[in-house]
Amino acid sequence: xxxxxxxxxxxLHNRRVIWWVDNEAARFSLIKGQSGSELMNQxxxxxxxxxxxxxxxxxxxxxxxxxNPADAPSRFEPxxxxxxxxxxxxxxFIQPKELLSRLVQ
Length: 105
Hints:
This protein is mainly alpha-helical. The chain has helices spanning 2-7, 9-12, 24-32, 38-53, 71-74, 78-85, 97-103, and strands at 16-21, 57-62.
């Protein structure tokens, strides 16, 4: 979610957004704005840092893994999502260097 929030920051600016999350710990951390895990706290801070610069109106909701279109690529089966959405190609999701450097500080 952090990578997508960063990559789509201009597109999502001042828009209503529904984030479908299949990880309860991530969902609750983003709703509360904090976590008991320092690594998760770092991700939450970065998510809201981007949102502070390019605000959106976010709603974070649970989705079961089997219904999540991002589940197949996360399990190294991107063809399933490509076929589901009728996409023409599969390409790598490149993590932006600026975002990575912020996360590993």
